[in-house]
Amino acid sequence: MKPNSNRKKDTRTLPEPQGPHAIPGILAEIVRAKRASLEHLRARRHDLERRAASGGPPARDLAGALAGGSRVALIAECKRRSPGAGDIRPDLDPGMLARTYEASGARALSVLTDERWFGGSLDDLATARAATTIPILRKDFTLDPLHVLEARAAGADAILLIARILADEELGSLLRLARELGMAALLEAHDSVEVARALGVGARIVGVNNRDLATFTTDLDTTIRLLEGIPRDVVVVSESGIRNRADVARLAAVGVDAVLVGETLLRAGDPASAVAGLSSVPRGRRGHA
After folding, report:
1. Is 209 part of the annotated catalytic residue set?
2. Does the active-site annotation cover 239?
3. 121 given a catalytic annotation
4. Residue 189, strand partner residues
5. Is residue 6 a part of any domain in this protein?
6. I want to staple 251 with a disulfide (CB 3.0 to 4.6 A). Which of 128, 175, 241, 256 is the partner?
7. 2 burial level (CB within 10 Å; 0-12, 13-18, 19+)
């Protein structure tokens, strides 16, 4: 896939292998490992292409699930651990948890498929999708078209594209491939430059990560600040640091469409009640065109 020749040259420091200093700490280590693992996927390219295009069940509509309704949509996350938090729910049953999430009001699921750092797998994704009727976001570190093919072959309805680790040409080409395969993409940004880059390649769903991956500090005001630069017809998902109903209400008041919540739900003694509480907040209106 050729990059868009009309797009201005991306002059930022590119992610590795072009420029490893662009990516902080553990994220750089994860990206290195993901790039190294591509060799294994290259050997499976033809099988992945066949399976991704085989005409299996059509992808479920993530944007539609998040944009509709009178309440802020909740994307509930399935993960066993994380580099920052350690073990969160190591005994997680993805099918049972996915059913609980859906029955309690979640509008979509985010499933971590990285094994080394998050304890997940593509089997978790397939199990969660088979157990539910709502869209499934494959949350992983997508760097290459092979990762997109792999996601669709496993049944993902959407993929995550992180602006911090991808150049503009990569963001655009991976987004286009996802759409060609019937999937949506959530483009994740942390600052105004990354939001502009996501919008520049045609993002219809923008995830604002409230966590600074360089310092690991979390601030919900990140979403509130960046929302002003995102058109109303783009679905906005606030990610990280959302702990309770008051946090969701604060984001709803400025017009956020959806929230993605993981650790709070996973550590809850009663995930069903936790989901019900966070998924019942009335949606507000965004105040700009």
Report:
1. yes
2. yes
3. no
4. 208
5. no
6. 256
7. exposed
